[in-house]
């Protein structure tokens, strides 16, 4: 009664914590789904402030204790600085618009 059956994972490859569970692309779905987390700043924020926080978040994402805790929770950490994250968001949005239209 207290069991969960995982049908698939959202990545493009199988997740190491659940190696027997197929990923979405294996099942024929043409795109992967990830949960992206990040921070946003008000338009016009000084780039020095953005760079500072981008660097600080990068430091956290390299911290061994943080990475160990994230791994124990099954949370893969993929750090992107603010410029990489903006490009990734644009690419993701373009994919959604291509698949689902501009609505």
Along the chain, the helix and strand elements come as HHH
Strand content: under 5%
Give the C-alpha Rg: 17 Å
Count of discrete alpha- or pi-helical segments spanning 4 or more residues = 3
Instruction: Quote the distance from N terminus to C terminus.
Output: 41 Å
SS content category:
mainly alpha
What is the number of E strands?
Answer: 0
**Overall average residue pLDDT:** 88
Q: Could you state the oligomeric state of the chains shown?
A: single chain
For the largest beta-sheet, the strand count, sense and barrel status come to: none
Describe the structure.
- The protein is mainly α.
- It folds into 2 domains: 1-34, no CATH class; 47-100, no CATH class.
- 41% of the residues lie in helices and 0% in strands.
- It has 3 helices and no strands.
- The protein has helices at residues 47-60, 64-72, 82-100.
- The chain starts with 46 loop residues before the first helix and ends with a helix.
- The mean pLDDT is 88.
Q: What's this model, at a glance?
A:
Helix content is 41%, strand content 0%.
């Amino acid at each position: 009664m207290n069991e969960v059956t995982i049908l698939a994972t959202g990545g493009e490859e199988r997740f190491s914590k659940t190696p027997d569970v197929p990923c979405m692309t294996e099942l024929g779905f043409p795109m992967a789904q990830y949960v992206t987390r990040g921070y946003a700043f008000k338009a016009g924020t000084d780039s020095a402030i953005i760079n500072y926080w981008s660097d600080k978040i990068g430091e956290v994402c390299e911290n061994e204790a943080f990475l160990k805790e994230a791994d124990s929770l099954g949370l893969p950490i993929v750090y992107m600085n603010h410029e990489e994250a903006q490009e990734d968001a644009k690419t993701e949005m373009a994919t959604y618009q291509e698949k689902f239209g501009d609505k």
